[in-house]
Amino acid sequence: MDKSLDDYIRGYQMEKKEIISCMGVVTCVKNKQIYVALLKDKENNWILPKGHFQEGETYIETAIREVLEETHIKLNMEDLIGKIGEFNYFSDIENGIKNIKVYLFKIAELQKIIPLGKEDFVEGKWSLLEDAINEITYQEQRDILIKVNEVLY
After folding, report:
1. 13-49: pLDDT as tens digits
2. CATH topology for 18-152?
3. What does pTM read for this prediction?
4. Residue 8 and residue 12: Cα distance in Å, rounded?
5. Which end of the chain is more exposed for a tag (fewer CB within 10 A), N or C?
6. What is the H or E stretch that residue 89 is in?
């Protein structure tokens, strides 16, 4: 016997889960210009570093760890400006709602970005904030960068 559409939808909704990820927006101010760290994936998407929350970590620790893993940029708690946002989207790959908690960091000196190849990142760079707003691929991340501009100025 075939499932009804209602049964199918009900089962699909029960399978969905929330996945928490934390994003680290890393900035550095030089000559009164704001630079932001960006990564490019193998599909040519420019993005901000983020990754899955792990039990035993705080959300801020997750953001710091993910930035280090994905970019090799070393952050510490003193670099934290604060939480600047949160957004959700549905991930087909993970079959669930992703909740992204976004933290802003400001470091004193630019550090070399070494993209994590095993995560399919092919390039990393420091971009002027106004350029990054135009380069970033996803609208939610663009909105975050616009907010960074408001917070730091």
Report:
1. 445 567 999 999 999 999 999 999 999 999 999 999 9
2. Nucleoside Triphosphate Pyrophosphohydrolase (3.90.79)
3. 0.87
4. 6
5. N
6. strand 80-91
